[in-house]
Amino acid sequence: MTAILKGYALPDDKGYFGEYGGSFIPETLQAIMNDITMAYEDIRKDPAFHRELAYLYKHFVGRPSPIFHAANLSRKTGGAQIYLKREDLNHTGAHKINHCLGEALLAKKMGKKKIIAETGAGQHGVALATAAVLVGLECDIYMGEVDIAKEHPNVVRMKILGANLIPVSRGTRTLKDAVDAAFEAYLEDPVTQLYAIGSVVGPHPFPMMVRDFQQIVGVEAREQFQDMTGGLPDNLVACVGGGSNAIGLFTAFLEDESVEIYGVEPAGRSLEKGDHAATLTLGKPGVLHGFKSYLLQDEEGDPLPVYSVASGLDYPGVGPQHSLLKDLGRVQYVTAGDKDAMDAFFTLSRTEGIIPALESAHALAFAMKKAAELDVSRTILVNLSGRGDKDIDFVVEKYGKIYGI
Ligand SMILES: *Cc1c(COP(=O)(O)O)cnc(C)c1O
Fold first, then answer.
1. Which one of 58, 113, 321, 341 has the lowest number of neighbouring Cβ atoms within 10 Å?
2. pLDDT for res 176
3. Where would I find the Tryptophan synthase beta chain-like PALP domain in this sequence (predicted)?
4. Per-residue pLDDT tens over the stretch 108-131
């Protein structure tokens, strides 16, 4: 196990987590990525940067986010005790503000004028637009038209915050197409802009950098959980889109062999019919958006169309460190479908008075199933990655009748 544990400090200096990650991009862009890596290595060692970020986490985001013992929900499942790490209580409503502030500060330190990004559910767009205002940068956000229609409140928020919202009408008009469009815009001027990637994906150094900024979730949770219960959780559960909230929670616990770790991918409408985004469950290694990882792809290696009721999980790739953690067997990747997630969404709302993001509802769905199989003395810590306010119109329109609204 020790040899494997050493791997958790990855990536290597070329950005590889085992065989995954790296940087598969044109030479001109590689020079820019090298600059970003160097700038990041500098600020990573700079106590002033960490002080500034810690100040913003505390006074702007509202960190530390609490851990809540969901006693009503636990009683309802009849098994293990479910605890929630409340990233939904962060300013802007999800974990994404943790890495957006880090990326915005980095851009500012590098003398960039603008940060650009893609967004799926709109959470990354809102978090980045917020960080851009605070730090004093312009902000361009690319978003698929399907997601724009579905995530109206976040679209309005980005506009109020002064970001330029650029609709993407190609392909399936969802997250992958938005990434493609944002990437192309970035290539046109990588000198005055910084592409602030929204998860632990993309070429080196982004999977490392975004993980480092998200680690705060697990670092806090480990200490808080011990304060509350006197021990470590028996199980960790987080949903996996690109994988940032999951790696943020998992990192602090990877060397705790007693802790079982689960990443939950979206099974969408059907795993059999290809109507999902369960990359680690059904994909194979390939290259997309400048990095190597598990990928849902056709025979030519082109990404397959993906689907989930949760726009933020709708991505055919996954962070390279998750691919390694899967191969090592340290994290088990499982799935929850649309129906399970919708049930979990309403169950949490109606047992604890907490409306979760549809993304987080996937983690909850698995946690509830797992809890029911375990003794009441066992514990499960779930990363409640975001709040569901952004989803309520969609949920009521599509599922309201089923749930008596
Ligand atoms: C974006 C998002 C996710 C998925 O992204 P990861 O990088 O996998 O964490 C999950 N939950 C919420 C609330 C999100 O906004």
1. 58
2. 84
3. 62-386
4. 999 999 999 999 889 899 999 999
